[in-house]
Amino acid sequence: MTPINAFTSDSAGALPLHVLDKATFAAWLDAQPAATQAWLSSQQFTAAPGSVALLPGSDGLAGAVLGVGDRADAHAYAHAPFALPAGSRWQLANTLDAAELANLHLGWGLGSYRFARYRKPARLPAQLAATPSPEVLDVLAACLRVRDWVNTPTEDMGPQQLEDAARALAEAHGGTLEVIAGDELLEMNFPTIHAVGRASHRAPRLIVLRWGEETAPHLALVGKGVCFDTGGLDLKPADGMRNMKKDMGGAAHALALAGLVMARQLPVRLTLVVPAVENAVGPDAFRPGEVITTRKGLTVEIDNTDAEGRLILCDALAYASEMQPDAIIDFATLTGAARIALGPDLPALFANDDTLARQWLDAGEQTRDPVWRMPLWRPYQRYLNSGIADMANAGSRMAGSVTAALYLERFVDEGRTWAHLDVYAWNDSDRPGRPAGGEALALRSAWAMLKARYG
């Protein structure tokens, strides 16, 4: 995880920071000296969301006012670290309730992030003199892990590195790790994972992390780990391939959430399943028109080699279903269709269980880390029909995210609670607290949902 200089336990010399919104600003301003009132009035400062006003003193800077919007949204505070002077130190000067304070701390941490593996940041963030709660720090660490993993180029984040990340989490929290790699995937009946990854010089693998008490409710997390996606023989155009280091974003989310579950000691029996591959072009690349018999026994005709994520996930989901968990949740950067429908910030949620879906939707509203439920419209299964196999891995361009989810559902045992999140894992542009590059989306709401369900 990229280290950040967000917090300090040393409040010596820290300047007062007044965190206000438009509703509280007027009363606060009335209580300030005339010089402060005149200074802020001259700038027409109103504590609008995302604003900052520096307050002058006789010896230089005397404090600042941070304008925020929705106090329940951690990102309302995330502009502070880079809007305030570089390396300056601040201490909260007014009272926030416990939830607002947690959001301030989380937002400050998110806003302080810069990916620094290959170059130093241009400037340091401002520091907050504060001691965030252990849970805030664990949630922040999980979010920043996703960003770091997704931002890391494939040369340093291939299947082996995903395995290393899972192993580090297992060792840190007392879990166990099993890895099935290379041709052993065929011996252990994971044919689609092998087919997608066999053309790469880096062996495909299935990573399985186990943790928790056997008697606890069993939670299975599954993450799509395509460490780079060329599209295979159905090659992507250059602009479509440019950011395909991010195609392991689903695995990053599942890994980070698993780490959070273990760090917070959620009373579950956890199984994390990550199929990790590189969809490469080579003499052994799988081909359009081939038929693969999956782990579940269903035959799949390859309509398009660029619909590879659902292929590796189908064996992983079948494997997770065999364990008969209480719930299966998968994360995947699966379809461009979900982005066209909902844009980059809003992950598409598909679920076969209304209770689980409602729990996640409610958690998204509570944490301001939303998901949007999409339909498992089963008549669209016709778009996955094959003339020679049980089904095809792709087909019509109609309802692309829906048909992808319907494909995955075929590999979840009937009656097994399952949710699928089609997540972008990426910020297209720089915004306060949301730097361009890898992003954790619906990770905080997933954690809040799991706490409500199992905690």
From TrEMBL:
<keyword id="KW-0031">Aminopeptidase</keyword>
<keyword id="KW-0464">Manganese</keyword>
<dbReference type="GO" id="GO:0070006">
    <property type="term" value="F:metalloaminopeptidase activity"/>
</dbReference>
<dbReference type="GO" id="GO:0006508">
    <property type="term" value="P:proteolysis"/>
</dbReference>
<dbReference type="GO" id="GO:0005737">
    <property type="term" value="C:cytoplasm"/>
</dbReference>
<feature type="domain" description="Cytosol aminopeptidase">
    <location>
        <begin position="304"/>
        <end position="311"/>
    </location>
</feature>
<dbReference type="Pfam" id="PF21337">
    <property type="entry name" value="Peptidase_M17_N_1"/>
</dbReference>
<comment type="similarity">
    <text>Belongs to the peptidase M17 family.</text>
</comment>
<dbReference type="Pfam" id="PF00883">
    <property type="entry name" value="Peptidase_M17"/>
</dbReference>
<protein>
    <submittedName>
        <fullName>Leucine aminopeptidase</fullName>
    </submittedName>
</protein>
<dbReference type="InterPro" id="IPR043472">
    <property type="entry name" value="Macro_dom-like"/>
</dbReference>
<dbReference type="GO" id="GO:0030145">
    <property type="term" value="F:manganese ion binding"/>
</dbReference>
<keyword id="KW-0645">Protease</keyword>
<dbReference type="InterPro" id="IPR048816">
    <property type="entry name" value="Peptidase_M17_N_1"/>
</dbReference>
<dbReference type="InterPro" id="IPR011356">
    <property type="entry name" value="Leucine_aapep/pepB"/>
</dbReference>
<keyword id="KW-0378">Hydrolase</keyword>
<dbReference type="InterPro" id="IPR000819">
    <property type="entry name" value="Peptidase_M17_C"/>
</dbReference>
